[in-house]
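note to self: dont lose this again. the chain is below, predicted strucutre after it. 163 aa total, dont forget to put it in the shared folder this time
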Amino acid sequence: MVAGATEDGICLLEFLDRRMLNTEYKILGKYLKDEITDGENRHTRHLLLELGEYFEGKRKIFSVPLVFTGTDFQKKVWDELLRIPFGTTRSYSKQAETAGGALSVRAVANANGMNKISIVVPCHRVIGENGHLTGYGGGLWRKRWLLDHEKKYSGQPVSLTIF
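---
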């Protein structure tokens, strides 16, 4: 994975093989009005610690500060993703409903897909209305792994189908 941060917080956590990664770099550079450079700061170090705890099953909520780079609509959808509890899932239609009621499921799904802070902003917890796994920029196999991981440490049964 690759992480990016400003002095205010984490703005990127993405899988290195994500097809949209170069596009995300461009969006970040444009939004932040700066070029992306190699390095680390207190937020990337904090993120690394919390990710380790997450993968060990010891962390269910992240506390690292976040910097959202997107439209107001996208930010609203991403804020709503943060409200989905660890080890649970929500359908795209429920996500649309909780993010504002009259929002289009397709628009919410698109905003989820533009989330640049994987795992911490848990877009992997949003699934199809029928309970099937759909859409995930990191790949459906990763989505399944993340959901199985969270179910394992939440004590809830796992039953998902990939289509």
